[in-house]
Amino acid sequence: MKAVMLGTGTSFPDPLRVQSGILIEDGNHRILLDIGSGVLHRLTQLAFDIKTIDAVFISHFHVDHCADFLPLCQSLWLTGFDETLKLYAPPTVTEWSRGLSDISFTYLRDKIRIATTSLQENQVVSLGNLRIVATPTLHSNYDTRAFRVEGNGKSLTFSSDTAPCRNIIDLAKDTDVLVHECNWLDGVHREGIHTSPSELARIAEEINPSKIVLTHVSPEVAVEREKVIEIVSRRTTAEVVMGEDLMAVGI
Ligand SMILES: [Zn+2]
Ligand SMILES: [Zn+2]
């Protein structure tokens, strides 16, 4: 299994980081975890054939996690995609998808078929050799899912947007690669929304991953790279790296 970090940024504009997105490839299967603004462009930089995407998983409907879904649909139509695109997301997904095609962009309605699946708590999805577990995170009052992707005895867990919470620790326990958000620096922040480096260090000790890839990195975090990595590394033996757009991660 291989992952490519397509977008490691946030909603804050950053010339080096587009919004949230990860490509997972395993043999004949390819899935996307999130598809924020800029992710489609990153796929084209990989010379990736978008018609080979098996499914798109959207963690939640904040714009920085789903904005490129519509451009993906339009591009698929223009490239002759003639299958049904699978979309997995939290429970408002059917209304969200219908809103796009029935209200906002009606010209796309008959151009592409989308099969939506509403992700219930701890739902498991199987696609070929891949097994994806979707668990609720703590992200204000916004219905959000973290994903654990397993294949051939290995796993990657993606936190999406979350404050530290028991669900993330349990979902990610002993995972090989933990892709975790690090939205802001240590300091005073509203509780229950995002994770700081010190908070991530605390839960990393319990999760016990082999590698940690920081993502959802805001510009203020990116400029403090060495300090942030040092803080996150304090209570874990895991290799800690700051994610970069187009970084490939072997699993
Ligand atoms: Zn969010
Ligand atoms: Zn976000």
Written overview of the protein:
This protein is an alpha/beta fold and 251 residues long. It has a single domain, classed as Ribonuclease Z/Hydroxyacylglutathione hydrolase-like (Metallo-beta-lactamase, Chain A, 4-Layer Sandwich). It is 25% helix and 29% strand. It is built from 8 helices and 14 strands. Strand 10, helix 5 and strand 11 form a beta-alpha-beta unit. The relative contact order is 0.16. The structure holds zinc ion (ZN) (2 copies). The site of one zinc ion has 4 residues, from loops. One zinc ion binds next to loops.
Compute the separation of the termini in Å. 5 Å
* CATH-derived architecture: 4-Layer Sandwich
Based on secondary structure, the structural category is alpha/beta
In N-to-C order, the SSE pattern is: EEEHEHHEHEEEEEHEHEHHEE
Q: Output the strand order for the largest sheet.
A: 6-5-4-3-2-1-14
Sequence-ordered SSE layout with sheet pairings:
Elements: E1 2-7, E2 21-26, E3 29-33, H1 39-45, E4 55-57, H2 63-66, H3 69-78, E5 84-89, H4 93-104, E6 113-118, E7 123-127, E8 130-136, E9 145-151, E10 154-158, H5 166-172, E11 177-181, H6 197-207, E12 211-215, H7 219-222, H8 225-232, E13 239-242, E14 247-250
Parallel strand pairs: 3-4, 4-5, 5-6, 10-11, 11-12, 12-13
Antiparallel strand pairs: 1-2, 1-14, 2-3, 7-8, 8-9, 9-10
Helix pairs in contact: 6-8
Bound molecules: zinc ion (2 copies).
